[in-house]
Specification:
The chain contains 3 helices and 4 strands. It is an alpha+beta fold.
Length: 129
């Protein structure tokens, strides 16, 4: 019986030391997630042809480490805008947390939003006044 306890203890110690948390989020894994999420956002945004600029608008995306958006993205109001804006918010929050967790620095320049969207050759472009 004593041998069985020793074998059990050795087994448990072995499990504890061999346990590898495969879900541990490294900076690279988190960055890959951010890139994947932004790729989904871009795919949604470009899923419609731009032929009528009145059916297009834009929103900011991302989060610089010193505050403010990374940029702006145009999207058609004919897509699932609730899903699109939910993904934008998810990306913004994840990027803010990523920047804080990993001590990311960025330029603190202020981005001015575009004044609207125009359609050229089926693609949306920002207009600035």
């Amino acid at each position: 019986m004593k041998e069985l306890k020793i074998i059990g203890i050795i087994f448990l110690v072995g499990i504890c030391f061999s346990y590898n948390d495969g879900d541990e989020l490294t900076q690279e894994k988190e960055e890959k997630y951010l890139n994947q999420l932004f790729s989904e956002i871009k795919n949604l945004a470009t899923s419609e042809n731009c032929s009528d600029s009145t059916e297009w608008t834009f929103t900011s995306y991302g989060h610089k480490s010193c505050g403010g958006p990374i940029g702006f993205i145009a999207y058609s109001t004919n897509i699932d805008t609730d899903l699109f804006l939910k993904k934008i918010a998810e990306h913004r929050t994840a990027q803010r947390e990523f920047n804080m967790k990993w001590g990311i620095v960025s330029a603190c320049s202020v981005l001015y939003p575009p004044s609207g969207v125009v359609c050229e050759n089926g693609r949306p472009f920002f207009k600035y006044y």
